Amino acid sequence: MITYIVSQLNEEDTITEKFIFLNIDVDCQGILTYDDMRKNLKNIGNATPEDITKAIKAVDIDDNDSIEFTEFLAGTVSKDIYQNDQRISDAFRFFDVALSGRISAKCLKEILGGEFYWG
């Protein structure tokens, strides 16, 4: 649900994250590779290579060995932005395609095309 919420944010809400993303994406691919992230995260604190790999995997929602901007936002945006009652309600309504007040596996399959990651 957080991926949906951050995909709906306006540029004003994400300007800092976009600046950071673009600075990490030095080859201007529009995605961050594991190497991009490792090179940038190793300069922060006392993170071990294992810590860095774990953090990257947590952000790489679709497990394609790269981090798109929406995934980056989902991992970095302030909780004040995504823990907003209106945004949560909007996201819930998006996923509740049956208008049942619940988000079922059937709804998720309909929205996500039949295949989705259960985590």
Classify the beta-strand content into a percent band.
5-15%
CATH topology of the domain at 2-83: Recoverin, domain 1
Q: What's the CATH class label of the domain at 2-83? A: Mainly Alpha
CATH architecture of the domain at 2-83: Orthogonal Bundle
Q: Look at the structure and name the CATH superfamily of the domain at 2-83.
A: EF-hand
CA-based gyration radius: 16 Å
Broad shape: elongated
The helix/strand order is: HHEHHEHHHH
Largest sheet: 2 strands, antiparallel
Structural class by SSE content: mainly alpha
Number of strands: 2
- Helix run count: 8
User: How do the strands of the widest beta sheet line up side by side?
Assistant: 1-2
Mean pLDDT, as a whole number? 77
Helix content: 55-70%
Tell me the span between the first and last alpha carbons.
13 Å
Poorly predicted regions are: none
Keyword list:
Recoverin, domain 1; mainly alpha; two-stranded antiparallel sheet; 119 residues; elongated; single chain; 59% helix; 2 strands
Describe the structure.
The chain is mainly alpha-helical and 119 residues long. The chain is built from eight helices and two strands. It has a two-stranded antiparallel sheet. The relative contact order is 0.15. The mean pLDDT is 77.
Topology readout:
Layout: H1 2-7, H2 11-24, E1 31-33, H3 34-41, H4 49-59, E2 66-68, H5 69-76, H6 79-82, H7 85-95, H8 105-112
Antiparallel strand pairs: 1-2
Helix pairs in contact: 2-5, 3-4
Summarize it.
This protein is mainly alpha-helical and 119 residues long. It has a domain at 2-83: Orthogonal Bundle (Recoverin, domain 1), CATH 1.10.238. Helices cover 59% and strands 5% of the residues.
